[in-house]
Specification:
9-stranded mixed β-sheet, alpha+beta, 28% strand, 438 residues, 5-stranded mixed beta barrel, 11 helices
C-alpha cells in the first residue's frame, strides 16, 4: 500500500491504484452508513467516500472542517462528481485537527466577510481555490516576465531598498533612522537601473518591492508593492521601449494562461485575455480631445482616475483592446530624468507614456535624458538640489548610451486581469496606511 503522497491533479493517471492524498477537509457529510469528505489541496479537490464498518468511518466522526488529514484508498472513476473520479477510502489519519474558523474558507454560504476581516485572517481566506488561483496567476506572471526578458538578453539585478537620498523626489517617501543617519525606503529602482546602464550591462530588469508613503485609501494603491522594472540601452527611439514592453506583457499573459487559464475561467469567468493585437497609441492631446467629446475631461494636465476609466471604455469600444498607451505627457507632470521633447503645438512634453489596462494605469515608461548637462538643467528646473543626487549624476559624466525603460505595478496587472474589486485581493499580504499586520 503506497504512502507516497499523490497530488489531486495526478489522480486521473492513477485510476485503479491505491493512493494517498493529503490536504484540508473542505466539506464533510456524515450519514448513518456512509461519509463523504471533500479534500482540498493546491492542485484541486477530490471526493473521498468512507463506508460504515471500516476503521476510517470511526475516524471521520472526530474530524472537523479545515482539519489536515491523510487519506489512503483506491482511485476510481465515477459519474457522481464533476472531476469524474473519487477515492474509496480504506484509511484516514488526522494530521492536525482544526478549530471552528472565524471566517468561512469556501465561497459557499450567505455569510459575507468584509475586506478588513478577510485581511485579518489572510491565511484562511487564501485557502479558497479562488484565492489560490490569484496567487498562481501572480506567480506565473513573475515567471513569464523573467523568462521573456532573460531570452532578450536582459540581466536580472537587485537594487538597494534603503537609500541615502530620495529615489525621485522627497514626496511619498518613508523616512527611517539608519545608524544615526536619515535614510529612505526606495519608491523606485529608477536611479539604480540607470546606473546599471552606465555600467555597461545594457539591458536589466528587476522584480522587487517598492515603498510609497501614500495615504490614499483606494482600490488600486498600496504602501508596499511589487514593482516589475526594465531598462534598455542603445535605443533609437522611445517606440522601441513601448514595443519591448508590449512583447513582455504579451508573454506574461500567455504564461498566466498556460499556468491557470482553466481556473481563471472557472472562478472569474474570464477566458480570453491574451494580447492578440498591437496596443493602440494615443497622444495626451488626443486623449483630452476624446474626453471632451465624451463630456468627462478634467482641467488637470494629467489624467484623473475617472478619465482613465473613460479612456479604457473608449479604446475597448473603438479599438477592441483592453490596453492603450497614452503618450506625450506634459513635461510639468513628469520627473526630471525623462527626456524632454516638443509636442505638436510646440509645448514641452515628456517622451513617455502610461499604459492603461481596462481603464487603470499599470505602467509608466519613458526615454531617459542621457546628457549630463541637460540632466542638471532639468533637475534645477524641477526645483531639486544637485548635491544629494551627485552620485547619480556622475553616471552620466563618463559616457551614457541613449536608454529608456519602465516600471510596472504587478498587483495592478492581476487586479485588472481578473477584474478584482480591490488590489488587496491581488497580493499575498496587503500593506496600506492602516494595515501593518499580519
Amino acid at each position: 500500500m503506497s504512502k507516497i503522497r499523490t497530488h489531486i491533479a495526478e489522480i486521473p493517471q492513477k485510476i485503479g491504484e491505491i493512493i494517498t492524498v493529503k490536504g484540508h477537509v473542505q466539506t464533510l457529510r456524515l450519514q448513518s452508513c456512509i461519509a463523504f469528505i471533500v479534500l482540498r489541496e493546491i492542485t484541486g479537490t477530490v471526493q473521498c467516500v468512507v463506508e460504515k464498518g471500516t476503521p476510517a468511518f470511526e475516524t471521520v466522526k472526530q474530524i472537523t472542517t479545515e482539519s489536515v488529514i491523510s487519506v489512503t484508498g483506491k482511485a476510481v472513476k465515477t459519474k457522481s462528481t464533476e472531476s469524474g473520479f473519487e477515492i474509496q477510502v480504506s484509511e484516514i489519519k488526522i494530521i492536525s485537527l482544526a478549530e471552528s474558523t472565524p471566517i468561512p474558507v469556501t465561497t459557499k454560504g450567505s455569510t459575507e466577510v468584509t475586506s478588513e476581516k478577510s485581511q485579518d485572517w489572510r491565511f484562511l481566506s487564501l485557502r479558497s481555490p479562488r484565492s489560490a488561483t490569484i496567487m498562481r496567476a501572480f506567480s506565473a506572471m513573475m515567471s513569464g516576465y523573467q523568462e521573456y526578458l532573460s531570452k532578450q538578453g536582459f540581466i536580472g539585478i537587485q537594487t538597494p531598498k534603503i537609500m541615502a537620498t530620495p529615489s525621485e523626489s522627497r514626496a511619498e517617501l518613508f523616512k527611517i533612522e539608519y545608524f544615526g543617519q536619515t535614510a529612505y525606503l526606495a519608491q523606485s529602482p529608477q536611479l539604480f537601473k540607470q546606473m546599471a546602464i552606465a555600467s555597461g550591462l545594457e539591458r536589466v530588469f528587476e522584480i522587487a518591492p517598492a515603498f510609497r508613503a501614500d495615504k490614499s485609501f483606494t482600490t488600486r494603491h498600496a504602501t508596499e508593492f511589487t514593482s516589475f522594472d526594465g531598462e534598455m540601452a542603445y535605443i533609437e527611439s522611445f517606440e522601441e521601449v513601448m514595443t519591448e514592453l508590449e512583447k513582455t506583457i504579451g508573454y506574461m499573459l500567455t504564461s498566466i494562461k498556460k499556468a491557470c487559464g482553466k481556473e481563471i475561467e472557472k472562478y472569474f469567468g474570464i477566458s480570453e485575455f491574451q494580447l492578440k493585437k498591437p496596443i493602440p497609441r494615443i497622444t495626451m492631446a488626443r486623449a483630452k480631445e476624446i474626453l471632451r467629446e465624451m463630456g468627462c475631461a478634467s482641467e488637470q494636465p494629467d489624467i484623473t482616475t475617472a478619465e482613465e476609466k473613460a479612456l479604457g471604455d473608449y479604446v475597448k469600444e473603438h479599438f477592441g483592446s483592453d490596453f492603450v498607451y497614452i503618450t506625450e505627457w506634459p513635461w510639468e507632470t513628469r520627473p526630471f530624468y525623462h527626456k524632454k521633447g516638443t509636442g505638436e503645438h510646440g509645448e514641452p512634453i515628456s517622451v513617455s507614456a502610461d499604459l492603461l489596462y481596462k481603464g487603470v494605469e499599470i505602467v509608466t515608461c519613458a526615454q531617459r535624458e542621457e546628457s549630463y548637462a541637460k540632466l542638471c538643467e532639468q533637475l534645477k528646473e524641477k526645483g531639486l538640489h544637485q548635491e544629494g543626487l551627485q552620485w547619480y549624476l556622475d553616471c552620466f559624466r563618463y559616457g551614457m548610451p541613449p536608454h529608456g525603460g519602465w516600471g510596472m505595478g504587478g498587483a495592478r496587472v492581476i487586479k485588472q486581469l481578473l477584474e478584482l474589486p480591490t488590489i488587496r485581493e491581488a497580493v499575498f499580504l496587503f500593506r496600506g496606511p492602516s494595515r501593518l499586520m499580519p
